[in-house]
């Protein structure tokens, strides 16, 4: 496995390379004035109390994109006082097929007494998030840069894609989707684990203007069926099975049951595109309906590696992501193209203090908004190298995270507080053991 520049990662490199650890949480209420800081920089003293602040070292601040609370406050105040100017300047760094109306950068009504609540960004502008996340990086000379590393469930399972290779795979799937009649505004359900095919499928939908709806591949058949009935997709994209740790999960069986349930509720899906995840299950062991099911490897790879971009309005839908349903029926939240593109790119850049040489790892699943924004779109919009991890952080042992950090020279590690606490409980022995 090579690094972004093609060199082999050095063993034991994490202590030198890992410069930024961030957790997926809000700051405690006692954080005071510096509410923009939510980073732990290795090498500094640990917080003595839960609500203590840990300030970055002078060396870190000197090279940071936002080097001081004062600079952050100035940026924040500009964004509030002049949102049109602030976001227009950022928008200019991306490609727009047609520029927005300067007088309608942002329009909103949040007062229900004045009519329906609505917010719109960059009215009149046309763009495409897939083009900006992939093509734009190639055109700027980074086609050979690693876009994604993939680490499988089992140690030793790995892969990588340059930006040029990623574009080819995205275009092949996009062309296949177009060939079966999927087009602008059509919904596509994606029920995949953290294989590279998951972000590829998201980007392929975005490229042709289709609306992807990723469903976490740990949800039940009933949960999947609810989402199918609600968004009425043209097809479901899944894989035959996945292993989480030592446990096999038969995803295709779950999809089959969900499609039966959705048909009972009046929504019939005529196509299930299935990726053969050979490390979890062979195709001959997979239950199959020949009139409906298609193997990804049998059809997608036959299509051209170039696909025209569908230019969409800034307010056209990009994806539909459902709430968990823990407090009632899952509610679909629709995210539009232009505003989401700018915000996720900007927050990734500044929250993680991203630099072009960084290797970035976010442990979130793309079934959640964090995975959408900070595994797929945010990193790629910044030309980053991102690590996609299929497995679980404690398999086959509690040193797996640090093994991965070493293997890929990870410099930015974004994870949940629960995992941080788990790693702390395991102590330094787990890290030393690898």
UniProtKB/TrEMBL annotation:
InterPro entries found in the cross-reference section: ACAS_N, AMP-binding_CS, AMP-dep_synth/lig_dom, ANL_N_sf
> Which Gene3D superfamilies does this chain map to?
N-terminal domain of ligase-like
Q: Which domain of life is it from?
A: Eukaryota
Which molecular-function annotations from GO does this UniProt entry contain?
Answer: 4-coumarate-CoA ligase activity; acetate-CoA ligase activity; trans-cinnamate-CoA ligase activity
Outline the extent of the AMP-dependent synthetase/ligase domain.
142-429
Signal sequence range: none
Q: Tell me which residues make up the Acetyl-coenzyme A synthetase N-terminal domain.
A: 72-133
- Cofactor or coenzyme needed: Mg(2+)
Gene Ontology BP, a term: phenylpropanoid metabolic process
Q: What reactions does this protein catalyze?
A: (E)-4-coumarate + ATP + CoA = (E)-4-coumaroyl-CoA + AMP + diphosphate; (E)-4-coumarate + ATP + H(+) = (E)-4-coumaroyl-AMP + diphosphate; (E)-4-coumaroyl-AMP + CoA = (E)-4-coumaroyl-CoA + AMP + H(+)
Q: Which family does it belong to?
A: Belongs to the ATP-dependent AMP-binding enzyme family.
Name of the protein in question: Acetyl-coenzyme A synthetase, chloroplastic/glyoxysomal
């Amino acid at each position: 496995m090579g690094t972004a520049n093609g060199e082999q990662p050095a063993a034991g490199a994490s202590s030198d390379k890992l410069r930024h650890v961030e957790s997926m949480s809000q700051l405690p209420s006692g954080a005071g004035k510096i509410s923009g800081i939510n980073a732990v920089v290795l090498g500094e003293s640990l917080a003595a109390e839960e609500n203590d602040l840990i300030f970055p070292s002078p060396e870190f601040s000197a090279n940071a994109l936002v080097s001081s609370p004062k600079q952050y406050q100035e940026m924040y105040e500009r964004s509030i006082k002049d949102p049109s100017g602030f976001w227009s300047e950022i928008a200019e760094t991306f490609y727009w097929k047609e520029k927005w109306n300067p007088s309608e950068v942002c329009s909103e009504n949040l007062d229900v007494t004045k009519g329906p609540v609505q917010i719109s960004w960059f009215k009149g502008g046309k763009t495409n998030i897939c083009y900006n996340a992939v093509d734009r990086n190639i055109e700027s000379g980074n086609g050979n840069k690693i876009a994604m590393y993939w680490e499988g469930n089992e140690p030793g399972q790995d892969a990588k894609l340059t930006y040029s290779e990623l574009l080819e795979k995205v275009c092949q799937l996009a062309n296949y989707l177009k060939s079966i009649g999927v087009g602008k505004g059509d919904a596509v359900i994606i029920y995949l684990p953290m294989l590279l095919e998951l972000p590829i499928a998201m980007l392929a939908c975005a490229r042709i203007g289709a609306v992807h709806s990723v469903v976490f591949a740990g949800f039940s058949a009933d949960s999947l069926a609810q989402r199918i009935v609600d968004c009425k997709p043209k097809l479901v994209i899944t894989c035959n099975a996945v292993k989480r740790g030592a446990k096999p999960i038969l995803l295709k069986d779950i999809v089959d049951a969900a499609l039966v349930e959705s048909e009972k509720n009046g929504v019939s899906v005529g196509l299930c595109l299935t990726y053969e995840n050979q490390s979890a299950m062979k195709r001959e062991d997979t239950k199959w309906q020949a009139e409906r099911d298609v193997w990804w490897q049998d059809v997608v790879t036959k299509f051209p590696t170039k696909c025209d971009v569908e230019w969409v309005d800034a307010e056209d839908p990009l994806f539909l992501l459902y709430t968990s349903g823990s407090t009632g029926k899952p509610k679909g939240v629709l995210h539009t193209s232009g505003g989401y593109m700018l915000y996720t790119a900007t927050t990734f850049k500044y929250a993680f203090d991203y630099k072009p040489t960084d290797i970035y790892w976010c442990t979130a699943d793309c079934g959640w908004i964090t995975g959408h924004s900070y595994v797929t779109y945010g990193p790629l919009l910044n030309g980053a190298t991102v690590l996609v991890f299929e497995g679980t952080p404690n398999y086959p042992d509690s040193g797996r995270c640090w093994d991965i950090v070493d293997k890929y020279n990870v410099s930015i590690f974004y994870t949940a507080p629960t995992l941080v606490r788990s790693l702390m409980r395991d102590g330094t022995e787990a890290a030393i053991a690898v």
